[in-house]
């Protein structure tokens, strides 16, 4: 294990993707509201000299929002990221990243011209070596500090409008925990007042695209810090599960022998400290989560509120959800009826698609079932089961996209809750991604799921090949048969001609070939076989 860890240390200086770029977390960038770092390849902002991109004004969506958030100018996340920066790198072609130094999802190579599709696999289909490597990667991400990103520990107003930057380092894994918290936290209104009916990642159309980007970025970070470009997130197929199949020390950690709310000491995750779980404390202090440790990871699967989540999701629940033709409907929040998104998220009944926030189905059911760190929205990503769960949720989203083949226009362009319109930039990602950019098949983003892979359609040549091979085996026989048939045909033709010449003329006993008109109607035709 020591050699394993030392090998990792050789690559920790590779880029990371996440929230505030370290190079832009300073007074100059905040006051100028510009985050256009130079690309290391040529030293120019956004790699402009190499044609990768350029520093541009951010184009914000002007589409009207839904009524769920009745405020304006009180939350740093409004019109993201304009409170902090209004100029960022706009990359061209297949380039991406806060400095245009990366390739878009689904592309690789020096010039980002090579298409690639990686396969996410069922965690129970991994070999022992692959599974242990995955667990080691998780633990490594928890301990390595992100080299390119920092988190904000105060609001823009608390930073004195940029004059007093408030940022701190964070590990690669906790960076993503913090981002999930930041997107779903309450709005701080001053004093002790908060607004709870706001979430930039849940309870609205962007739920599925947001988590799709989150997983893609998380996956890329593991590839970067380990140097393992082939790594993909495994998924847990929880359909019809009777209990938490991954909750054992071989996988994601078993139950503690004396405290059922904690993990087994034999699990590497038992030593993990959670962050961003004390939302009421932050609200009372009008503060942001500072990512300090708040105690051990908690999980007590199955000992949850059965009245809210009576069972884990079934295959029938998933199939019914997939049959829904509308992606979004009505108010486009957790009260939406007959909405695929709301039913998959778990606020609508998985057997009727009627909204029922008092019950938790599908996606929500797994969170409630875990009965611990994963059951509280803002801090749920602390539990590493989160990525396994959301990878499978994303695969259901992918099945719906393939079955219904929706146009981009199906995703709401206006009147969705704040942060969820099609052209809205997702909070809190930098580089910037719009919701609508990830409302498309996963293969276009460079990945697929093992159980969704379609068999290749055979070419016309492949279709004919079996018949051609059979023809080769009987070729000699076919040629002989053709020659013999030609000889027999020639002999018979000669005999027929000879007989005609011998008979010659017309005998009086021979009946006429044409029947006289008056006899025609007296004849009855019969067919004998």
TrEMBL record:
Cofactor(s) demanded: Cu(2+)
Keywords: Copper, Glycoprotein, Melanin biosynthesis, Membrane, Metal-binding, Monooxygenase, Oxidoreductase, Signal, Transmembrane, Transmembrane helix
GO cellular component: melanosome membrane
Pfam annotation, one family: Tyrosinase
Endpoints of the signal sequence: 1-18
Domain Tyrosinase copper-binding: 202-219, 383-394
Family indicated by similarity: Belongs to the tyrosinase family.
Name of the protein this chain belongs to: Tyrosinase
Lineage: Eukaryota, Metazoa, Chordata, Craniata, Vertebrata
Record gene name: Tyr
């Amino acid at each position: 294990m020591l050699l394993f860890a030392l090998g990792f240390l050789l690559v920790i200086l590779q880029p990371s993707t996440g929230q505030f770029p370290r190079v832009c977390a300073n007074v100059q960038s905040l006051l100028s509201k510009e985050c256009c770092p130079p690309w290391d390849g040529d030293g120019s902002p956004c790699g402009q000299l190499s044609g990768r991109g350029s520093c541009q004004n951010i184009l914000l969506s002007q589409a009207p929002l839904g009524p769920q958030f009745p405020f304006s100018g009180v939350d740093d996340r409004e019109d993201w990221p304009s409170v902090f920066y209004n100029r960022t790198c706009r990359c061209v072609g297949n380039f991406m990243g806060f400095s245009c130094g990366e390739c878009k999802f689904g592309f690789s190579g020096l010039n980002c011209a090579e298409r690639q599709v990686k396969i996410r696999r069922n965690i129970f289909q991994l070999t022992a070596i692959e599974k242990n490597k995955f667990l080691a990667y998780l633990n490594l991400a928890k301990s390595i500090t992100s080299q390119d990103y920092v988190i904000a520990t105060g609001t823009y107003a608390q930073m004195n409008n940029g004059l007093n930057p408030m940022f701190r380092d964070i590990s690669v894994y906790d960076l993503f925990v913090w981002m999930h918290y930041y997107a779903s936290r309450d709005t701080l209104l001053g004093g002790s007042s908060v607004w709870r009916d706001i979430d930039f990642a849940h309870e609205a159309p962007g739920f599925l695209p947001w988590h799709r980007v989150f997983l893609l970025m998380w996956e890329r970070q593991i590839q970067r810090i380990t140097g393992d470009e082939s790594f993909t997130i495994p998924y847990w197929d929880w359909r019809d599960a009777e209990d938490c199949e991954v909750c054992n020390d071989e996988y994601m950690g078993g139950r503690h022998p004396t405290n059922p709310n904690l993990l087994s000491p034999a699990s590497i995750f038992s030593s993990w400290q959670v962050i961003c779980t004390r939302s009421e404390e932050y609200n009372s202090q009008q503060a942001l989560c500072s990512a300090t440790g708040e105690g051990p990871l908690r999980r007590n699967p199955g000992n949850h509120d059965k009245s809210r989540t009576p069972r884990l999701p079934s295959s029938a629940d998933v199939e019914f959800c997939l049959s829904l033709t509308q992606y979004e409907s009505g108010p486009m929040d957790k009260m939406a009826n007959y909405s695929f998104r709301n039913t998959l998220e778990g606020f609508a009944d998985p057997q009727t698609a009627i909204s029922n926030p008092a019950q938790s189905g599908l996606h929500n059911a797994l969170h409630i079932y875990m009965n611990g760190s994963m059951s509280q929205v803002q801090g749920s990503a602390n539990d590493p089961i989160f990525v396994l769960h959301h990878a499978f949720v994303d695969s259901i989203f992918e099945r719906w996209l393939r079955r219904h083949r929706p146009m981009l226009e199906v995703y709401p362009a206006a009147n969705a809750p704040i942060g969820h319109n099609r052209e809205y930039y997702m909070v809190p990602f930098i580089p910037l991604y719009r919701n609508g950019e990830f409302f498309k098949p996963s293969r276009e983003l460079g990945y697929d799921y093992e159980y969704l892979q379609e068999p290749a359609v055979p070419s016309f040549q492949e279709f004919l090949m079996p018949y051609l091979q059979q023809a080769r085996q009987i070729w000699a026989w076919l040629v002989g048969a053709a020659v013999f048939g030609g000889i027999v045909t020639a002999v018979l033709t000669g005999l027929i001609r000879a007989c005609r010449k011998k008979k010659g003329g017309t005998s009086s006993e021979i009946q006429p070939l044409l029947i006289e008109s008056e006899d025609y109607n007296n004849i009855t035709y019969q067919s004998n076989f």
